[in-house]
Amino acid sequence: MTATTGLQVTDLHTTFGSKSRAVHAVRGVTLHVGAGETFVLLGESGSGKSVTARSILRLYGDTAHLGGRVTLGDTELTALSPKAMRSVRGRCIGLVPQDPTAALDPLRTIGSQLVEVLQVHGMQRSKLDARGRARELLELVGIPDPPRVFAARPHELSGGMRQRAVIALAVACEPELLIADEPTTALDVTVQALVLELFLDLQRRTGMALLLVTHDVGVAEELGGRIGVMYAGRLVETGATREVLAEPRHPYTRGLLDSLPRPGIPRGELPVIGGRPPMTGEVEAGCAFAPRCPRAVSSCRETAPELADLGAGRAAACPVVNPVPALTSAVSA
What we know:
Layout: E1 7-17, E2 22-33, E3 38-42, H1 49-56, E4 64-72, E5 75-76, H2 82-88, E6 93-96, H3 100-103, H4 110-120, H5 127-140, H6 146-151, H7 159-171, E7 177-181, H8 189-206, E8 209-214, H9 217-223, E9 226-231, E10 234-240, H10 241-246, H11 251-258, E11 308-311, E12 314-316
Parallel strand pairs: 3-8, 3-9, 6-7, 7-8
Antiparallel strand pairs: 1-2, 1-4, 4-5, 9-10, 10-12, 11-12
Helix pairs in contact: 4-5, 5-7
């Protein structure tokens, strides 16, 4: 497997349940993350961003039906057997989950867990070599006392140190792609900044692609790269992160940014997006954001708009804000 083309997701659909009661959690997501690039999935809870990330890893097994294609390098992940996919996880794709405590075995030392990952994926043949490499990985992720952390169990570490240990596990096999699912949610602001800088530093050192899931606009802005804003299982806007956040072209993105606290706005007067996001499975015909959108017109409730190419690497799924002669059916994010 090579990293020449990075990750390519094409028309990804994730459906839970049966035919009589199907829940469409991800609906036609297309995106690309090249080697060394960063792509941020931004959206509210329930928007489908975490389901998208876990669908790429095929973590739902038989509980979900996947449609579309997911390729990493020259390998189509959606065509692999479950056994072959297990060898991809950890070796070619690393995952940093939201809760580092739940991701670590509480009864085993950090070092033994790192050694196991290295040996299971064939990165180190001997246990002695694996132990040495494990200590190097702890140093790589900025842990100041690798021998102590190597011998420690998760409960003996701070939240920030546990998160760094999980990142060490995720990058142990030098994956081509790192997926980070809300990796800073449980961290204070200072540790959060250190973790984000760690991701960028690891990218510079290894050239891995990074797909990061977050609901935090500040995290997205800090990482830069490109962004995909999700709503109700769809991408509604994509482009260079700083351009999208500086000049949004979809009403939902605009609403997210307007609702951020800013100096000079008194308590209780912060603008909010009216209504609530649709529950998974509630989405009907038309634009899912139309019931909450101040710019909605009658046609918005009839046809779900596709992402339209706006030029300069930008795309948005709102023909009201971005009137164009003809909408493209789909564009690669």
